[in-house]
């Protein structure tokens, strides 16, 4: 698996935030996801890849699912989603500005991304970001400033499990 990487360009160092990115990378190393951790201005970029019915980095394995429509993923996740969530590792980040860079890899219909607080109370109190319209082969950025708390992220258009994300200082 590819380890998270840090952009240590002069621009990043000039902004005095390279240390913050290094701390985020240490936090992510325990997560062992293969997404990239990069600097983008004053935000940290988390790279996520969607294939049919799943996010690759969170599950750590491409299950090779095939789906032509949303309903196909609903059937797959009804059968295997809970077990896959148990095996997936939770993402842990520090509070701050992030860009979630989401790519559609081999999903033949449009998909999106939704990050929100976990549960009704957290959903009402914590920041969220969402969007759709990602055709096959496209990538989109979702910017958010995360506060301490428990979150989930998923794609309702390419139904995936609700993957856990914890933000703590």
Distance between the termini: 27 Å
CATH class membership = Mainly Beta
pLDDT under 50 segments (min length 5)? Answer: 1-36
Briefly note the CATH topology name.
Immunoglobulin-like
User: Structural class of the secondary structure composition?
Assistant: alpha+beta
Task: Output the keywords.
5-stranded mixed beta sheet, 5 helices, 169 residues, Immunoglobulin-like, disordered N terminus, alpha+beta
Kindly describe this structure.
It is a single chain. This protein is an alpha+beta fold. It has one domain: Sandwich (Immunoglobulin-like), CATH 2.60.40. Helix content is 27%, strand content 35%. It has 5 helices and 10 strands, in the order ααβββααβββαββββ. The strands form 2 sheets. Strands 1, 2, 3, 5 and 8 form a 5-stranded mixed β-sheet that branches. Strands 4-10-9-6-7 form a 5-stranded mixed β-sheet. β2 and β3 form a beta hairpin. The radius of gyration is 16 Å and the shape is globular. The chain starts with 9 loop residues before the first helix and ends with a strand. The N terminus is likely disordered.
């Amino acid at each position: 698996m590819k380890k998270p990487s840090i952009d240590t360009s002069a621009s990043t160092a000039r902004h005095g935030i390279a240390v913050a990115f290094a701390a985020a990378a240490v936090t992510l190393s325990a997560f062992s996801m293969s997404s990239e951790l990069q600097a983008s201005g004053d935000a940290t970029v988390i790279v996520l890849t969607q294939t049919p019915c799943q996010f690759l980095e969170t599950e750590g394995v491409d299950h090779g699912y095939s789906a032509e429509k949303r309903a196909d993923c609903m059937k797959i996740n009804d059968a295997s989603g809970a077990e896959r969530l148990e095996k997936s590792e939770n993402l842990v980040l520090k509070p701050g500005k992030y860009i979630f860079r989401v790519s559609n890899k081999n999903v033949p219909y449009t998909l999106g991304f939704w990050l929100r607080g976990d549960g009704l109370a957290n959903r009402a109190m914590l920041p969220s970001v969402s969007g759709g319209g990602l055709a096959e082969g496209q990538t989109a950025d979702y910017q958010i400033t995360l506060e301490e708390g428990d979150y989930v992220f998923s794609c309702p258009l390419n139904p995936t499990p609700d993957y856990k994300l914890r933000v703590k200082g």
